[in-house]
Structures are given as C-alpha cells and as structure tokens.
Amino acid sequence: MANYFIHPNEIKATAYVDENADDKLITNAIAIAQDLYILPMIGTGIYNELKTQIGASTLTALNTTLLGAYIVPALRYCALYELAEPMTYKFTNKSVVKKNSENSEPVTFQELTALKDKFLNIAQWYTERLKLYLVENESDYPLYSNPGNGIDVIHPKHDSYSCGWYLGESHESVPDFIKAEFPATYGTE
Q: Quick check: is 110 in a domain?
C-alpha cells in the first residue's frame, strides 16, 4: 500500500465493514480521510515523517505509539465517515445507482446521514485525543510545532471540533406573546 496509516483489513476487522467489502473503496476512503482529517491535525512535518517511516518500515517507538494509540482510532472513524456514501451508491455509465442485494435493504438517506453523524462524532473525539497527546508531548514531536516552511506546508489545527454559528432564532419560531412583548425587536409595531 502507498504508505497509508491503516490497512483496509483493519477497517474490516475492527469496525462496521463487512469482510467482503471492496478494498478499493476502503483504500480510497482511507486516503481521503488521511488527507482531509489527519493531515490538518498533525501537520505536514509529522505526516510526511510517518509516511516515510511506514514506507521504509522504520517506525520509531514514539511514532508507533502515535500511530497505534492515537492516529489509527481517529482514522478508522474518519474513513468510515468517508466510506458511507461509496458503499451505498455507485457510479455507472448509465447513472448513479443505489446498491441493493437480495438479502438486504438499503438504508434511507436519513439513516445514512445519522450513521455518518455518529462516525463523525466518534472521529472528532479521537482527533481531540490525538491533538491533546501531541500538545502534551510536544517536546517528543518537534515537527508538530515546526512542520516546515513553504506555501504548501500545513500547520496543525489546534481544535478538532467544528460547528456552525448560532445566529439566533428566526422570527417565525418566536412565540406571538414574546413578539407582542417586544414589538421593536420583532418588527410588530
């Protein structure tokens, strides 16, 4: 494999994916998850060091711990998050189709979204652990603070959770008795 941090068999053995699932789909999800979620958390320096050491089979003890105890658990759920749609839908020369078999029933879009949300929440928890470990052990991982120079260098993200902005409730959901109490605020004068 091309220096991936986890093998498709690990996803199959420890997660929700059936053993007969296509490794090509899983490998693609791993590659996407590594680039989109793990790289921003650890930065270009550690990311490239890990890929080089994995390729040369020379992982240091520190990087073995980082990979096994922190990156792999996060990557597993990031990959599952990215894998949910490709396992459900397939691009053919005719159109995009929903996969089906004789003995199973495809999930609804709402069920798929709920499952992806679950995977994302778990992944965020593990990426938070990863970040805290790197901050706590920054002296052992100098590339965390100094990932390199250049416009293509990604500096580590120092938060793993993201959420939208709360802009207040829309006026439609505000009860009429409150609108009557504060007419200037809700334009009911």
A: yes
